[in-house]
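Posting for a labmate who doesn't have an account.
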Amino acid sequence: MGDNTPEQPEEVVVSEDVKSDVTEEAPKGSLTPENRQYAAFLEERDRRRDAEKRIQRLERKLEKLAEPPEEFPVLPTEAQHSEEGLRLKKEIDRLEDEILNIKGSTELNVITAKFPEIRNNLDEFQDFRSEYPGVPTEKVAKLFLVEKGMAPVFQERTGLEAPTGGSREPAKPGVTVDDLKRLRETDSRRYHKMLKNGEISIGDLRQM
């Protein structure tokens, strides 16, 4: 009489080498400040694009409201002031403000990454920046750091050494550093215009 006991399946032993291959390691450097900043930039870019698409859809709806039906003619101005038209216009304005805020946030992240000294004086820098409308934010950041005595050595042109001593020519023939100081105090509009037009260099600002 034969043995009817069922055969036991052989136990498969997984070696430690195989086990270690199964475990995936997190990509190295994924939590570095640079990668976090880039991820934040991508997120803000996607938010801005989404808001722009929503604005386009709402504007198309607003245009359809302005199209008068054949049986009940409606003037475009009436469509703009209808309840639905006003609601769409309000939503468009809100999204446009959201886009401006996203752009401002992205720009500020770039500036603070380039000039880390600004991070600890962010509120003060925001107030300072509002005094220079139309001036590029990077130039305002350099001016802010110079006036606060926190400025690193800024290279005026690529490939040129920063001046180490001695006198230098003013930004404009006939205009001295003292003239620029007085101009900033007595005629801020002209001073801002010269700054915006690049007529005042960082070297001049460092001497003021």
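Reply:
Got it, the structure tokens are right above this. Residues 76 and 132 are 39 Å apart (CA to CA).
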